[in-house]
Specification:
heterodimer; A: mainly alpha; 69% helix; 0% strand; B: 159 residues; mainly alpha; two-stranded antiparallel ribbon; globular
């Protein structure tokens, strides 16, 4: 029998605030690590530099360990699929977090591209005379890899929303494998080819300097994305995502898409741009 | 546009930019077809993220070609055409595609003689036929996708 005043169908999710010391600790560790890297690069107090850099790695490792609760218990059940269970899920909406991250990344790449265009506008001829025409075969493969991985991760999320954990995990792991191929091609094949055969180096000219700076920054971001996806994979294999709890997957995919879009600009400006003379 | 739509936006950007920069142009009946233009009818399915994505994709592709400063206005023209496809999606997707073809063809007819040594009549003919062929191929793809796509009504995430 129905009641006259039925409750609203909308489920109200209580806000959850977790007072955490981790943001402050990670920020401090980042500062210590930056100082350590500075000491290392300058060749000053090497041991202190190494220790300071490693302390950052240790803080991040402990954070990930404590964040992903019940690792040992979950790993002992490895292979089983706990449906709709949430073990150590993020209790708060992290969409704002990823928006802030994307904004800071926009500032970083915006500054880097502004530098590129500032240099380019001051040059009479671009690319400068003597710049080799770069083969774009690897870059085309990398573009294909990024498009495929972006589509695959969206498909994986779609499958998760449908409750298909198996397809979700397959899609996520596939994305990670595709993503890992990108830096392998860049740092394992293209850069050694350009640098060791003296085709293009940072000291060749301004084009070489901007090429290695921009593609280097981007490459590091791809590596970070692959690491984030690896972590996401581990949590997915532990059954920590459900159709209603997959904020970290969305955040990781958003970061990945952002890295992808930056690549498209780089591909247009660096590889296609190396063929032009203005 | 929601954060969840960011993926769709980027995929459409990539389809246009990489389709224009990374793939050779498709040759059909002596005409060159831009792969990215084939994605235009899919705006009727994927909505505004696809509109913004294709517009940015065209901007990036033009950065790579760098034909002339005036060509950088092309994304704005395409944007208007894509928005028309989006708003006509429920009444007549094909109608929106025809408006898009006419609008972009007119723009290319104006643009081509300015950036290359071709006559206006040749520019008009090639622009209209190339745009029609590309968008109609895309429209066939849109019809197939519309029929085969599963119901997107899936639970939304809470975290």
């Amino acid at each position: 029998m129905g009641t006259a005043a039925e409750p609203s169908h909308e489920v109200e999710i209580p806000e959850y605030y977790e007072h955490s010391f981790w943001p402050v600790l990670i920020a401090a560790a980042t500062g210590v690590a930056m100082t350590g890297i500075f000491l290392l690069l300058k060749g000053l107090v090497l041991y202190a530099g190494i220790l300071m850099t490693l302390s950052f790695v240790a803080v991040i490792a402990i954070f990930l360990y404590s964040d992903t609760k019940n690792w040992s218990a979950a790993l002992s059940k490895f292979g089983r699929i706990p449906r709709d269970t949430v073990i150590g899920g993020f209790p708060v909406d992290i969409s704002l977090t990823i928006q802030i991250i994307i904004m800071t990344e926009l500032l970083l790449f915006g500054g880097a591209f502004a530098m590129y265009f500032a240099i380019r506008l001051r040059m009479g001829v671009w690319p400068p005379l003597g710049t080799p025409i770069l083969s774009d075969t690897i870059a085309r493969v990398q573009t294909l890899i990024l498009i495929s991985s972006s589509i695959l991760v969206e498909w994986a999320i779609y499958k998760l929303k449908q409750g298909n954990q198996k397809a979700f995990r397959a899609g996520l792991i596939g994305t990670t494998i595709l993503g890992a191929m990108f830096p392998i091609l860049q740092f394992g094949f293209e850069w050694p080819h350009l640098l060791l055969e003296n085709i293009l180096t940072p000291s060749t000219n301004f084009f070489g300097a901007t090429f290695f700076l921009l593609t280097g920054i981007h490459g590091v971001h791809v590596v970070v994305g692959v690491l984030a996806f690896t972590y996401t994979d581990i949590r997915a294999l532990m059954g920590q995502y459900s159709p209603k709890n997959h904020g970290f997957v969305e955040a990781t995919s958003t970061y990945w898409h952002f890295v992808h879009i930056i690549w498209l600009f780089l591909f247009a400006l660096m590889w296609q741009g190396s063929r032009l003379l203005i | 546009m929601k954060l969840e739509d960011f993926g769709t936006f980027v995929i459409f950007t990539a389809v246009y930019a990489a389709g224009s920069l990374g793939l050779p142009k498709l040759h059909l009946l002596a005409y060159q077809l831009t792969v990215g233009e084939m994605a235009a009818p899919f705006v009727a399915i994927f909505g505004m993220p696809a509109v913004f994505g294709l517009t940015l994709g065209q901007f990036i592709a033009n950065l790579g070609f760098e034909v002339a400063p005036v060509a950088m206005l092309s994304p704005a023209v395409s944007f208007v055409g894509l928005v028309i496809i989006y708003y006509l999606r429920k009444t007549s997707a094909i109608g929106g595609c025809i408006v898009y073809i006419l609008l972009t063809s007119l723009w290319i007819t104006f643009l081509l003689p300015q950036i290359s040594n071709v006559s206006t009549s040749y520019a008009a003919e090639s622009a209209f036929l190339e745009q029609t062929l590309a968008v109609m191929i895309g429209y066939v793809g849109y019809l197939i996708a519309k029929r085969t796509m599963a119901n997107p009504n899936v639970p939304s995430k809470s975290h």
